[in-house]
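Hi support team,

I submitted a single chain yesterday and got back a structure, but I'm not sure I'm reading the token output correctly. Could someone confirm the output below corresponds to the sequence I sent? I've pasted both exactly as they appear in my results page.

Thanks,
R.
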Amino acid sequence: MHSNEVIITGRHLELTESLKRIVREKAQKLFHHEHHIIRFRVELEYNQNVTRKKEYIAKGHIEMRGPGLNVTAESGDLYKSIDFMVDKLDRMLRRKSRLNRVKRKETHRVEIPAVFPKTV
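Hi R., thanks for writing in. Yes, this is the structure output for that exact sequence:
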């Protein structure tokens, strides 16, 4: 991994070494797509509300140049939630990269609507 930071926190669940390892492995894909990522924060949460079917929530926040990216993914399985979160962030990073590339390629003339005085 680069010198980037991955911060993993758990709410209402215990973080095991295997969970931390999986999140770090998935984060490698994100760091591969974007080199300007400063910090990647992941919050894994177990929802104790019995009425909701989707109990596990994975929240991801990427700090980078410009505006950061925030994503939330819910499912009945913690590993699926992590996969959904990483996939969403990956799509957002690829879209941002593609838009930057398009803006860089589209050059246009700028016309200034001003009349310059004649000099004698």
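A quick pointer for reading it: The longest strand covers residues 37-46. Let us know if anything else looks off.

Best,
Support desk
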